[in-house]
Design goal:
Elements: H1 5-19, E1 27-31, H2 35-43, E2 50-56, H3 61-69, E3 73-77, H4 88-106, E4 111-112, E5 115-116, E6 119-120, E7 123-124, E8 141-143, H5 151-167, E9 174-177, H6 183-195, E10 200-205, H7 211-217, H8 223-226, E11 258-261, H9 264-278, H10 284-300, E12 306-307, H11 324-329
Parallel strand pairs: 1-2, 1-8, 2-3, 9-10, 9-12, 10-11
Antiparallel strand pairs: 4-5, 6-7
Helix pairs in contact: 1-2, 1-5, 5-6, 9-10
């Protein structure tokens, strides 16, 4: 199953164009670990717009290469906490402000198509004093805001959830997925719960993320934070695009019955298992989701239908997740012959 990231962005782009927040010839900006940005870079030209993506510089290099091949401008930045002004999401928001300010200057007026261009997502241009990074031909900027924009949730509530229900004939017992923005797990869980409240919905969380504790204990913290340790990233894991240490507007809408923890080693081993036995070449998020599916299967026992999401290809993870030298340096060389790494013979 493909997650409808393109549908999400079509919805947002269309509404932005209708409202005047985005004009043909404008630039769409996003802060992303890669996958959503690739969808955005694919869709934006169809609306006559360009795409500017801000991505953490520890994300797999091939994601940046794909984005550039699609015509997007890519800005790689060091990973920092979301509270830092130079977090990749905050920079992406600023870039939209800069593009709008430049467009306003070029037209020698403060308004674009009758709309107030001095604010983007409630952030004032006057508060942002940055060097312009865009061509003067751009017609303003729009920040897609995948973490907080509820079009993310709606795309999965209206698309992915119904697709799962239809494909299973409504006969499923559980759903599990990891969360980055939270849109997938929130949209799907809410839809499934409305169709059948007995369907169990779970989160699988990678190392360093605080969501497991939030779901199971109501407290948002990680072991690293509790011990007073913070690494260069808000969370420390080989997986990309999942795990987070804040509650997004999208995740707030999730209807969850519980959560499981997954490890980097389990994700790596699962990816090799799926490739060897199922012919599936998946990325780190999909591998973690499948770790979660096995955890749920063990918890529920035989005879249950469990659904998860295969949301990324291994082709986007060659330089890290499928790089033997990189894995060896981090003590993640796979060695399992079956599913013994999850306690199954």
């Amino acid at each position: 199953m493909e997650v409808p990231g393109v549908d999400l962005l079509l919805i947002k782009s269309t509404k932005a164009l209708e409202s005047g927040a985005l004009a043909e010839g404008g630039v769409v900006t996003e802060g992303s670990a890669g996958s959503t940005a690739i969808s955005l870079a694919t869709v934006a030209p169809a609306y006559g717009c360009r795409c500017h993506v801000v991505i953490p510089d520890d994300a797999a290099l091939e994601k940046s290469q794909i984005l550039e091949a699609l015509g997007a401008a890519v800005e790689r930045v060091r990973p920092v906490s979301i509270t830092h002004r130079d977090h990749f999401v905050n920079i992406a928001r600023r870039r939209a402000l800069e593009a709008s300010e430049l467009a306003s200057i070029c037209r020698n007026e403060n308004q674009i198509n009758g709309n107030d261009s001095s604010q983007i997502n409630d952030h004032s241009i006057s508060e942002e004093k940055q060097t312009m990074n865009f061509s003067r031909e751009y017609k303003g900027g729009f920040f897609a805001d995948q973490f907080e924009n509820l079009a993310n949730f709606r795309s999965h509530y209206e698309g992915t959830g119904p697709e799962i229900w239809e494909q299973t004939g409504g006969k499923l017992d559980a759903f599990i997925a990891a969360a980055g923005t939270g849109g997938t797990v929130a949209g799907v869980s809410q839809f499934l719960k409305e169709k059948n409240f007995n369907v169990k919905c779970f989160l699988i969380d990678p190392p360093g993320s605080g969501l497991f504790n939030k779901v199971t204990r109501g407290v948002m913290y990680t072991r690293e934070e509790a011990e007073g340790r913070r690494l260069k990233n808000p969370f420390d894991t080989i997986t990309e695009g999942i795990g987070i240490n804040r509650i997004t507007e999208n995740f707030k809408l999730a209807k969850l019955d519980g959560a499981f923890r997954g490890t980097d080693m389990e994700a790596v081993e699962m990816s090799r298992y799926l490739l060897k036995y199922d012919g599936l070449f998946v990325g780190s998020s999909s591998a973690m989701n499948c770790v979660g599916a096995v955890r749920v299967a063990k918890a529920l026992g035989p005879g249950h239908t469990i659904v998860t999401i295969l949301c990324d290809s291994g082709m986007r993870h060659l330089s890290k997740f499928y790089n033997a030298e990189y894995l060896s340096e981090h003590g993640l060389t796979p060695s399992a012959t079956g599913l013994e790494f999850l306690g199954l013979s």
